[in-house]
Amino acid sequence: MLPSYEHKLTEIREMISSLLYDILLSSQQSLKAFENNDTDLYASVRSKINTVKAITDTIDTKIIQTIALFGPEANELRDLIVYLKMTNEIDRIVDSIDKYCKRFNNHIFEEYNLTSFNNAIIQLHKTTLHTLEYLYAFFMDIDHASAHDLYRKVLIEESINDDLFSIIEKDFLSLIMTHSEHSTEYVNVLGTLRNLERIADRAVSIAALLLYAQNGGELQLRR
């Protein structure tokens, strides 16, 4: 391809890297907000994450323009299509972070007592953070990093995330059975925490896309 195509590809990769960094930072801040019951920090994360949403549209436009202008084929086209699909997965991660912050902010105002679950929720959140950290690190060294290694690491964290959520869900369901007067708040919190599970799922889909871009083969995404 022409040198100017390589320049466009580098621009797109840098934009995605910057986007992943902003998402990682927002997730870190939302964990800090949970640890400190900080409603102002939740609001700050939501404000930041909503500005991120517009960036994915800009990246999509740049990708489509690059395809139209240069007519890439084979591996070059595969890379761009993967990045186009990635922005859709990133949008879903952004939505999950936004919902998580909005709903936990409400839980604080409604004075939900989650003290006995704090450690489990923090561990759940950390597994989600790890998947995002792996994605960002891969993009920072995309020309040399192994997509196989990335996919393996993200899949392991997602599996731990699933196990932790299942344990939390089981404990909450037990409480619903024994403390029916609090059943609504327990169901609400479970719905909020499911956003962390969804972020990990979306991270697996992104890792699968990057594996496909690097090695080809059959693409399998999470629904």
What features would you describe in this structure?
- With 223 residues, this protein is an all-alpha fold.
- 85% of the residues lie in helices and 0% in strands.
| Main sheet properties | none
What general form does the structure show? elongated
Distance between the termini: 34 Å
Whole-number radius of gyration? 19 Å
Share of helix, binned: over 70%
Element pattern in H and E = HHHHHH
Number of helices: 6
The number of distinct β-strands equals 0
Mean pLDDT: 92
User: Proportion of β residues?
Assistant: under 5%
Low-confidence stretches: none
Q: How are the SSEs ordered, and which strands pair?
A:
Elements: H1 3-36, H2 39-70, H3 74-109, H4 118-140, H5 147-178, H6 183-215
Helix pairs in contact: 1-2, 1-3, 1-4, 2-3, 3-6, 4-5, 4-6, 5-6
Key phrases:
mainly alpha; 223 residues; 85% helix; 6 helices; elongated
Task: Write a compact overview of the structure shown.
The chain has helices at 3-36, 39-70, 74-109, 118-140, 147-178, 183-215. It is mostly helical. The longest helix is centred in the middle third of the chain and has 36 residues, at 74-109.
